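Recap from last week: sequence in, structure out.
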Amino acid sequence: MSILLSNRARIAQTRRGLDQSSIEIENWLKDRKRVWEYFRKKFDQRSRWSEEIFADLFSVLATGPWGAWAMAELEMADEASMLVDRPRYPKSIARLSLLYHRTLSF
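Predicted structure tokens:
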């Protein structure tokens, strides 16, 4: 009888351990899903920016420093505004930095 009880106790303990493990695995998967969603959104956002970045670089390649100057006229603002995330365009500071470094090669 005591062997039967000890086996039942082991089975119950194993079940509790498996339940706890499945909860931990489920939480781990939820965390990974959140991380994946974050990076997927960021990738989608940056892929939308690719057209704008191409156009900015092409303007500098075609017109030289004047293309960067024209973009600076449009993008210059106070510091807080230049650091704001925008869905269609990269941050102003990123665009101007990219154009500045490209213009240095002239």
